[in-house]
Amino acid sequence: MMRELIPLSIPHISGNEWKYVKECLDTGWVSSVGSYVDQFEQRVSEYVGAEFGIATVNGTAALHLSLLACGIRPGDEVIAPSFTFIAPVNAIRYCGASPVFIGSDPATLGLDVNKVNDFLAQECALRNGELYNKQSGRKVSAILPVHIFGHPVDMAPLNDVAGQYELPVIEDASESLGSEYQERKTGSLSTVGCFSFNGNKIITCGGGGMVTTNDESLANRIRHLSTQANKKPFEYEHDEVGYNYRLTNIQAALGVAQLEQLDSFVEIKRKNAAHYRELLAGIPNVDLAWEEPWAKSNFWLCTLMVSPADRIPLMEYLISQNIQVRPAWKLMHTLSMYQDCQVYKIEASVAEYERCISIPSSVQLTAEDIQFVVDRIKAYFDQR
Ligand SMILES: Cc1ncc(COP(=O)(O)O)c(C=O)c1O
Fold this sequence. Notes:
Elements lengths: L16 H11 L7 H14 L3 E5 L2 H11 L7 E5 L5 H8 L3 E5 L10 H11 E4 L2 E4 L6 E4 L11 H10 L5 E3 L7 E2 L2 E2 L6 E5 L12 E5 L2 H11 L3 E3 L4 E2 L10 H11 L2 H19 L6 E2 L6 E2 L5 E4 L2 H13 L5 E2 L15 E2 L2 H7 L2 E4 L7 H17 L1
Parallel strand pairs: 2-3, 2-6, 3-18, 7-10
Antiparallel strand pairs: 1-11, 4-5, 8-9, 8-15, 10-11, 12-13, 14-16, 16-19, 17-19
Helix pairs in contact: 1-8, 2-8, 3-4, 3-7, 5-6, 9-12
The structure holds pyridoxal-5'-phosphate.
């Protein structure tokens, strides 16, 4: 008999979710104002160690508003990875700007700081205090690192490089809530941090997002833009084109209940990753993407690294065994919308993409599930 599907990453609803959502329904506070929205903003920002939190309808909206508030204008360029989920790159486009794709660091799978440094030093020039890409002639306005699969980018040198050119850094921490860089939480490490509470993330609101920052004027601007730029709400006085990007109280109620469990979710995911690693150690040709000494990953998605020749056949085999797996995202510079964008030292991103398979990583994964997944991986290599 076929074993039940082992999903990749599903929500774990085991705390006060029903209670808090019911309270919203019972009181009628269901929409974009309410005590859970305030609590969620306060608690997430406290958790990550940032002064301000602005809840948004999803992580993509958080990124869009952060880029706008950091002053990204049509025609600008933003440094971003090609190896990422598409949302941050789309958000750059929503601002009328273009991404410049810079290669990954194989140790973290995130932006390679040395390559960013080389690009800015060799391919760009300062003019009147602003940085311009010598090839395109466009202004380079920000750096957008993404903490891939939960593992932090090497942020200290990245912040140093950004500081040298006075570029804001927008940290996409959508996948890395609870992860730490040098004992500080991701999302609090640079100009602004962005989170997603989509259903596949470590905690979920169903859908939701958050911007975190220590910069009060950025926080005010982001909040303003998220509420239709309504300067005097009673009189409906809007002073620019804004967005309806606020999170609802129902979603925030879910989020508050989930946040209460976050520490235990991180602990479980780290334990599961260590268990996978221990069991996989005996299998040649397979590595598990691991963490750097300065990092504490939330291991949002555990990811195998295999040879390019094994990647698709192994995925097909695991799927046939009712194990849900996923490839990494197609590289951004290969997608039709972005294939005209500049790439720089992208080889490592291509190599890593061709090796990655994300494997079941939900909080409710059991030791037996992990053993089963590893046994099937072993069986694939035995029969190859
Ligand atoms: C790295 C990254 N950035 C942004 C997002 C977008 O978040 P959302 O789906 O909440 O818009 C996601 C996930 O969905 C993501 O993985």
